[in-house]
Design brief:
alpha+beta; two-stranded antiparallel sheet
Length: 35
């Protein structure tokens, strides 16, 4: 299990942080889940 995650989308970093921070990030949700 990761302690830190970096999410990239279209060549840029959206967020880097804990799994909880990444899971709750609206930009990540929109980019990957379409929500």
């Amino acid at each position: 299990i990761a302690k830190s995650i970096m999410v990239m989308h279209q060549g840029r970093t959206l967020i880097q942080g804990s799994p909880e921070e990444v899971r709750g990030n609206r930009e990540v949700q929109e980019a990957y889940l379409g929500e």
